[in-house]
Amino acid sequence: MIQSESEQEFEALLNYLKSHLGCDLTIYKRAGLVRRFEHHMYQLKINNYIDYLEYLKNHPREHLHLLNTILIKFSGFFRDRDSWNYLASVIIPQIIRNKEPGEQIRVWSAGCASGQEVYTIAILLTEILGIEQYLERVQMFATDVDTDALLEARRGSYSTLEIAGIDDKLLSKYFDKNFQNNEQRFVIDSKLRRKIIFGRHNLTLDAPMSKIDLVICRNVLIYLNSETTPAVLVRFHFALKDNGFLFLGHAESLIKSENIFRPIDIKHRIFAKNGNLTLEQYLLILPTNLRKKKAIMNTQTNET
Ligand SMILES: C[S@@+](CC[C@H](N)C(=O)[O-])C[C@H]1O[C@@H](n2cnc3c(N)ncnc32)[C@H](O)[C@@H]1O
Questions:
Q1: 113 and 261 part of one domain
Q2: Overall pTM > 0.90
Q3: For residue 284, is it within any domain?
Q4: Is the CB of residue 111 below 6 angstroms from any atom belonging to ligand 1?
């Protein structure tokens, strides 16, 4: 494929970020990435990729700023409400039925942004189980690659605009009101928050969680390119218990992973773990360097 000069410069920039700073942005869809880069450079008053590369080399923390600015972290409570209702009325009761009394329920919000998604599921689980059972039985993991977003998520403090999706009864039950800098804030109940382990985790690089009953990964895969998405879905398969569920975003679907998940409700993007990983899929869980090594070894074994 013939590349323009600007495309080659952009490629060189991405290669530098990956090889020198461990920041692999090649996993994202290219068009959106270019748009967000240009916006970031415009704000720094830099108008070409070569100058930006120089800037990056001279500012050791710039790649962290870059990452935190170009990742889309828009989120909301009860986003796609019908799907959350379905989850609460069909899927969570099913997860509970699959358990022995008192057995742990493990949930992973992957790409949790500023926390609205994980607090939504925490509220639903508390409504269904009651606060005592929630505190005793639920283990929640909320991860994201964006450290600024994780800070906000841990804080669990939201503006009037941000809590608009929560109905009044739940709002008064699960949030405390306070004033910060003359602004009304709504802070999630600390009992709910304390059960959630927040952590930085890159879905394409870091080891997946394990023994999870429900993986929630909404509005993250849409930003990934079509080679990266199957590798992330394989990691979710690995993370889930045999009878676990995967909840994707409204506009997301299984790409090259139809053999490892069974649709439960397509409209609400809820899937059940199904079948086993093929060797090729299993290799996708390994870090890229090991994956290449194994692939070479396999080719050699096949040849002998
Ligand atoms: C649009 S937000 C979605 C937030 C939430 N899941 C929701 O639907 O409301 C996308 C999130 O995915 C995170 N993300 C993007 N790439 C990621 C990666 N490779 N590993 C982990 N998180 C990632 C971004 O930092 C951002 O917080």
A1: yes
A2: yes
A3: no
A4: yes
Asked whether residue 25 is domain-assigned, the answer is yes
**Domain presence at residue 173:** no
Q: Is the CB of 118 under 6 A from ligand 1?
A: no
Please indicate, yes or no, whether residues 63 and 101 belong to a single structural domain of this protein.
no
Q: Ligand 1: distance of its center to the CA of 75 in Å?
A: 9
Distance CA(122)–CA(74), nearest Å, equals 19
- Quote the ligand 1 centre to 182 CA distance (angstroms): 30
79 within ligand 1 shell (Cβ under 6 A): yes
The reply to whether ligand 1 has any atom less than 6 angstroms from the CB of 216 is no
For the domain that residue 148 is a member of, what is the CATH number? 3.40.50.150
pLDDT tens digits along 273-295: 998 998 999 888 876 655 555 55
The answer on 241 and 141 residing in a single domain is yes
Ligand 1, atom nearest to 146 Cα = 25
Q: How many residues does the chain have?
A: 304
Owning domain of residue 216? 81-157+190-279
Q: What is the pLDDT of residues 185-243, one digit of tens each?
A: 999 999 999 999 999 999 999 999 999 999 999 999 999 999 999 999 999 999 999 99
